[in-house]
C-alpha cells in the first residue's frame, strides 16, 4: 500500500465517529418525535453503513453487534414496533457500545453488549413475540415481495485492492441477500509476467435471487468509488419499468449466458452521490487538521514577509516596486481571510454534542431539562471550538446540577417542572459570545461570600459588590456544592474554566438574579492565529495590544505626566485606573513629553495603559513564547514586525488584573490618608 | 542530550568560547549559527533569558550563559555569534539561542578522555557541567544545558 494513502482502519474510525454522532442525534430527536419516519431512516442508514464498512475493514465485532442492533431497529423501520423511550434509551447505550468496540475493542465487555441487545430486542418485541431473530436487514420487506432474480455485473477498478476494497466481502454480502450464483469474469487477466500482484483484474457476475429491493443491492456497493463499474440489471419481469431495456434483459433471464461478452463500458454506480461515508460530502472535501494548521503557519509567515516588503517598498522610490508590493499586500490579506475562513466551523457541531450530555444529566439527576440553542451557525476557529468543549461541558453540568432546582421545588416556585438551559452563540465585533444560561435558583451571594470567608479568600468584613462576589466562584479551589456529587464535584472547578478561556485570550462573565437563574458568558476571539494589533512604544520597546480589547486612546493629562504611582483618569465621567507601562516594564527611560493612554477593556473592567507613543495597527501573527519565558505573565505571546524584529504582545487579562489590584491598593492608601 | 557515541566512542562537538572558557556542544543539537541579530528584551524574564530573537519566523529565547555562570558581562564583538540549538526542556523539544563570544570548530571528542566535573577549581555550580576534557592543552567543558536553563 502506498505511503500517501491514509490508513483505511483510521478512515473507518473517523467515518464511524461521524455516523455515530448522526445516529445519536437522530435517536435524541426520536425521543421527542417518535413518529418521524425520516429520523428512523437516518438512524437506520447510519447503522447499516457502520455495519457494512465495519465488516469491510475488519471490525468484525462491530459489524456483528451492529447487525443485531440493526435487526432490532429494523422492526421500527418496518412499522412493526413503536419507537418507544425504552428503545431510544437502549439504542443510545448500544450506540455507546459500538463506539467502545471501535475505539477500545479490548476494553469492552461482550456481556454488556449482550445485555444491551436483549434490552433492544425487548423494546421492539410485540407483547407475545420473541425477540426479533437475526435476519438480514431487509427481511421484513420480504413479507410482501417475492424473490426475483437480478443480474449484477461488478468490476472493481485496478486500484480497488490497494484502496482497501475487499470484493470477497461484497460478494458475501450479496449472498446474504438471497441465493446467489457467482461467476468470475477472467477476460481481463493479463499473462502471468504482466500481472501486478496489487492490481485487481477480476470482475464478477452474480445472479441473485432475492426479495430485497434494488436499493439493498446498491448498498452493497456503497464504497466502490468511481473507478469501479457496477451494473445491476433488474429481473426480466419488470425491465419495462427500468431504464435499461433491450438485450441486457434477455441475458439477465438466461443464467447460462453469464460467460457472454461482459459489457465493455459500464457507467459507475451513482457517481457523485452524497453519502458521508465516502469521505466526500457533496462538493466538500475532508482534509486533515494538521494540513490546515500547516497552511495557516505558512500564511502567517507570508503576512510577516509581506509587511517587510511593504516597508522596503515604502522606503524606496521605485513606483513599480510599490505597485507590486501593494498588489501582493492585497492578495496576502485575501489569502489570510480565505485561510482563516477554511478553519471556521459552525459552533452548532459543538452544541449538538451537548444534547446527549443533557439527556444523560437529566436522567441521572432526575431533573427534566429543556434545552434551547440558538446561533448554531456562528463560526469560530476549529481549534477554538475544540478547546472550548471542556469548559462548556463543565458550565452545563454546573447549570443542571447546581443551577436548576429539583422539579418539585420549581413547581413550588411557580416555574415549569422542566428546567430550562439556553445555549446561545453570537458574534460581537471580532469576538464570539457563548452563553450558558439556566432559569434556576441563581447564585446565592450570601453563601458564596460565607464560603469565601471560610476559605480565607476574602476578609470577613470585606466590602464587595455583587459582580465581585460572583467572580469569587472562579477562584481556585472554590466550589459551592454543599455535597460532592458525581456530576460536578470532581475537583475541577470554575477556576479551570476560567484559566482555559483565558488561555484562549477570552474572558468570562457571570450575571445572576436570585430565583431567576444564572448566565455565564464566554467572550472569545474569532481566531487564535492572527489578530489585529495596536503597536505602541514604551521606552525603546515595541509592544502589540490586541485591538479588540482597545476601547480608545487619549492623551495623558500634563498634570499626570510628571507624577508616578497610582492614579485615576476621568474618562467621560467614569474613573479609570491606569498603569504606567514604563514603570511596569522597568524601561529605565525618561517619559516622552506627550504620553498617550490606551484604554483597554474586557467585560466591565477597564484600565488605561500609559505608553510613550502609539505607532498604529498591525496584522499580528501570534507566536507563543517558549517554556523559558513561561514565568513572564505580562505577555501572551510575540509577533514579528515588518523589519524582522520581535514585538511582545501584552496580555490584556493580566494587565486588567494588575490594574484592579493597583486600584485596590491605591484606594486603600487613599482611605488611610483620609 | 545523551552523548551519541559512535562505535569508536567519539562524539562530534561544536567548540565555542564564552569569556575565557571553552565549551563543547554536541553537533547534532546545533541547528544553525547566526551573526548577532536584533534582540527584543523581555521585561520581567529571568536575566539570563532576557531576550527573544526571530529565527526564520520562530520566536526563540536568547540565553546569555555569562549571566547564568556568574561571568562578567561583556559587550558583543565582531566575533559574537548566536548558536541555535534544538534541545529537550522538561521533555518538550525547544529551540534556544545561545550567545557565544566566538565559535571555533566541530571536532571529535574521545568519550574515554572525558571526566566528571571536578568539585573544586571551577567558578560555577558543578551540576551545570556534564563532563570536562582536554583538547589542545585547554580545558573543554560539556555543559548540562537542561540544568542550566531550568
TrEMBL record, chain B:
Residues 10-150 form the CheW-like domain. It comes from the Bacteria. This is Chemotaxis protein CheW. SUPFAM superfamilies: CheW-like.
Amino acid at each position: 500500500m502506498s505511503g500517501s494513502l491514509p490508513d483505511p482502519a483510521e478512515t473507518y474510525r473517523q467515518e464511524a465517529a461521524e455516523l455515530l454522532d448522526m445516529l445519536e442525534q437522530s435517536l435524541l430527536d426520536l425521543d421527542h418525535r417518535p413518529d418521524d419516519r425520516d429520523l428512523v431512516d437516518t438512524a437506520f442508514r447510519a447503522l447499516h453503513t457502520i455495519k457494512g464498512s465495519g465488516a469491510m475493514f475488519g471490525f468484525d465485532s462491530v459489524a456483528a453487534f451492529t447487525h443485531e442492533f440493526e435487526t432490532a431497529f429494523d422492526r421500527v423501520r418496518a412499522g412493526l414496533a413503536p419507537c418507544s423511550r425504552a428503545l431510544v434509551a437502549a439504542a443510545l447505550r448500544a450506540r455507546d457500545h459500538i463506539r467502545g468496540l471501535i475505539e477500545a475493542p479490548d476494553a469492552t465487555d461482550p456481556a454488556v453488549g449482550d445485555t444491551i441487545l436483549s434490552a433492544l430486542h425487548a423494546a421492539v418485541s410485540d407483547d407475545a413475540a420473541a425477540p426479533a431473530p437475526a435476519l438480514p436487514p431487509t427481511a421484513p420487506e420480504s413479507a410482501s415481495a417475492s424473490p426475483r432474480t437480478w443480474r449484477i455485473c461488478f468490476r472493481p477498478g485496478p486500484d480497488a485492492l490497494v484502496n482497501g476494497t475487499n470484493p470477497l466481502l461484497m460478494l458475501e454480502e450479496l449472498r446474504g441477500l438471497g441465493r446467489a450464483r457467482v461467476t468470475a469474469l477472467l477476460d481481463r487477466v493479463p499473462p502471468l509476467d504482466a500481472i501486478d500482484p496489487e492490481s485487481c483484474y477480476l470482475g464478477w457476475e452474480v445472479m441473485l435471487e432475492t426479495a430485497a429491493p434494488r436499493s439493498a443491492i446498491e448498498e452493497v456497493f456503497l464504497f466502490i468509488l468511481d473507478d469501479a463499474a457496477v451494473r445491476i440489471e433488474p429481473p426480466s419481469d419488470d425491465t419495462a419499468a427500468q431504464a435499461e431495456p433491450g438485450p441486457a434483459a434477455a441475458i439477465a433471464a438466461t443464467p447460462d449466458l453469464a460467460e457472454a461478452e461482459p459489457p465493455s463500458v459500464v457507467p459507475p454506480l451513482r457517481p457523485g452521490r452524497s453519502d458521508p461515508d465516502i469521505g466526500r460530502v457533496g462538493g466538500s472535501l475532508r482534509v486533515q487538521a494538521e494540513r490546515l494548521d500547516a497552511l495557516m503557519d505558512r500564511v502567517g509567515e507570508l503576512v510577516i514577509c509581506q509587511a517587510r516588503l511593504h516597508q522596503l517598498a515604502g522606503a524606496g522610490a521605485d513606483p513599480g516596486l510599490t505597485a507590486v508590493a501593494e498588489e501582493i499586500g492585497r492578495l496576502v490579506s485575501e489569502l489570510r481571510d480565505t485561510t482563516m475562513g477554511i478553519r471556521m466551523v459552525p459552533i452548532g457541531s459543538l452544541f449538538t454534542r451537548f444534547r446527549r450530555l443533557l439527556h444523560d444529566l437529566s436522567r441521572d439527576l432526575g431533573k427534566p431539562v429543556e434545552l434551547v440553542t440558538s446561533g448554531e451557525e456562528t463560526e469560530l476557529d476549529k481549534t477554538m471550538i475544540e478547546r472550548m468543549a471542556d469548559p462548556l461541558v463543565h458550565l452545563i453540568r454546573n447549570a443542571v446540577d447546581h443551577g436548576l432546582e429539583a422539579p418539585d421545588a420549581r413547581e413550588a416556585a411557580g416555574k415549569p417542572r422542566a428546567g430550562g438551559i439556553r445555549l446561545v452563540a453570537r458574534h460581537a465585533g471580532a469576538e464570539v459570545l457563548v452563553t450558558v444560561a439556566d432559569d434556576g435558583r441563581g447564585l446565592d451571594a450570601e453563601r458564596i461570600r460565607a464560603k469565601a470567608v471560610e476559605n480565607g479568600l476574602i476578609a470577613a468584613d470585606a466590602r464587595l459588590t455583587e459582580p465581585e462576589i460572583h467572580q469569587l466562584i472562579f477562584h481556585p479551589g472554590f466550589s459551592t456544592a454543599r455535597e460532592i456529587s458525581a456530576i460536578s464535584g470532581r475537583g475541577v472547578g470554575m477556576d479551570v474554566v476560567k484559566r482555559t478561556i483565558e488561555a484562549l485570550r477570552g474572558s468570562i462573565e457571570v450575571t445572576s438574579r436570585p430565583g431567576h437563574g444564572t448566565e455565564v458568558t464566554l467572550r472569545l476571539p474569532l481566531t487564535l492565529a492572527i489578530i489585529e494589533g495596536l503597536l505602541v512604544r514604551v521606552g525603546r520597546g515595541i509592544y502589540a495590544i490586541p485591538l479588540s480589547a482597545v476601547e480608545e486612546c487619549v492623551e495623558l493629562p500634563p498634570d499626570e505626566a510628571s507624577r508616578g504611582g497610582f492614579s485615576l483618569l476621568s474618562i467621560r465621567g467614569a474613573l479609570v485606573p491606569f498603569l504606567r507601562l514604563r514603570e511596569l516594564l522597568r524601561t529605565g527611560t525618561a517619559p516622552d513629553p506627550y504620553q498617550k493612554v490606551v484604554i483597554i477593556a474586557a467585560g466591565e473592567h477597564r484600565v488605561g495603559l500609559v505608553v510613550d507613543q502609539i505607532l498604529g495597527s498591525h496584522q499580528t501573527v501570534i507566536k507563543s513564547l517558549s517554556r523559558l519565558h513561561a514565568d513572564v505573565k505580562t505577555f501572551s505571546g510575540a509577533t514579528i514586525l515588518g523589519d524582522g524584529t520581535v514585538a511582545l504582545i501584552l496580555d490584556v487579562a493580566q494587565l486588567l488584573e494588575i490594574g484592579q489590584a493597583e486600584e485596590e491598593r491605591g484606594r486603600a492608601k487613599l482611605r488611610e490618608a483620609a | 542530550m545523551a552523548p551519541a557515541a559512535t562505535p569508536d566512542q567519539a562524539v562530534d562537538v561544536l567548540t565555542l568560547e564564552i569569556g575565557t572558557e571553552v565549551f563543547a556542544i554536541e553537533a547534532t543539537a546545533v541547528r544553525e549559527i547566526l551573526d548577532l541579530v536584533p534582540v527584543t528584551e523581555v521585561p520581567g524574564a529571568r536575566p539570563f533569558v532576557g531576550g527573544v530573537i526571530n529565527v526564520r519566523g520562530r520566536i526563540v529565547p536568547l540565553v546569555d550563559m555569562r549571566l547564568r555562570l556568574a561571568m562578567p558581562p561583556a559587550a558583543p564583538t565582531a566575533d559574537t555569534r548566536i548558536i541555535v540549538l534544538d534541545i529537550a526542556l522538561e521533555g518538550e523539544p525547544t529551540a534556544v539561542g545561545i550567545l557565544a563570544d566566538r565559535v571555533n570548530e566541530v571536532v571529535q571528542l574521545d568519550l574515554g578522555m572525558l571526566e566528571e566535573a571536578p568539585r573544586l577549581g571551577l567558578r560555577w555550580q558543578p551540576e551545570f557541567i556534564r563532563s570536562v576534557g582536554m583538547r589542545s592543552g585547554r580545558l573543554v567543558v560539556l555543559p548540562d544545558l537542561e540544568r542550566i536553563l531550568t
